[in-house]
Amino acid sequence: MTPAKVYPDSDLPVVTLDPPLSRCMKNRTSTLLPPMDHLSASRLNLLCSDSLDRAAELRGSNAELARRASSEGARFLAVHDLALLVQRDRHGVTVVQLPRVTLEARFGSDTQQVYLGRQDGHDFFVALLESGTVAPGEEFSDLRTLAGMLDEAQAALLGYARAMAVWHRSHRYCSHCGSTTVSRHGGHVRECLNRECGHLHYPRTDPAIIVLVEKGERALFGRKSEWPQHRYSTIAGFVEPGESAEQAVVREVAEETGVEVIRANYHSSQPWPFPGSLMLGYSAVAGNDRICRNDNELEDALWLDRQQVSEWLAVGRFKPPPVISISFRLIEDWFDRESDIPLRAVCQQTG
Predict the structure, then answer these.
(1) Which of 204, 206, 200 is nearest to 60 (CA)?
(2) What's the pTM?
(3) What is the pLDDT of residue 34?
(4) What is the biggest distance separating any 2 CA atoms in the chain, rounded to whole angstroms?
């Protein structure tokens, strides 16, 4: 029995590709250029901006964190029930960044806070709110609907904030003894209050593979029954204890489709804070093309070449995963490698 699979596309509505498409096109490099290094490749994935200095050396100093939180340069991102506070107007979406005095005036002085780091001359914290009262024009919104509307730095910062909020919500009690835990080290440790236990809990990330499998001119796609109609994506699943990421690629593809992977190459990675995964992207080559859905994880699995993808997109029979996901990126890099028209352009043409 394998654990439940993680799919970046699950529980998402079908989204339009513009404006998110135009946002995600920024700084993209043509796939016709020589292969880039893995660091550069990962930087092209949304939620992966490295513009934030996490300043981990400050987390152990309560006095320094308190000083920075009270400074004029401090900015607080508000999170309630894993949704993030934003402001919408006719110009688009803006992330609400609250100074300390405004945060306390609106939400009180006892909000739990997590230090995120420094960016653009500001110290950023996330405030975990118990109530979600908003001002006119504001709303708490899910990051999956926001990410494509934000620039890379903002999307990555909010992804980090959401991941920490998820971890704090799920670790209020010690998994060793069941006692209450409290936040320490700027919100990056939770300590068990039971003196006989005192276990320290650290933020966790669950590794998962996601892979574009190809054989000849065709790529392997799958869909789950709960996805939007005609949504297809790449194969994905959690890495199990005692196996490498590459072994997980082979196992997951075989379990879900019956296809044997004979070669796998690392592509890039993407943090996916829904709730807390690190997606390890791969491209792979299949040794056979006979599909047998062994574990019934997928409702459908099929092989498509680039022309079929274009034709199915045109008639609404194929809907790719959201452009914010690494799954779209894997499909895009495969498609663009042998196509005169980039996948994003095809998506725009077909609406």
Answers:
(1) 200
(2) 0.88
(3) 52
(4) 66
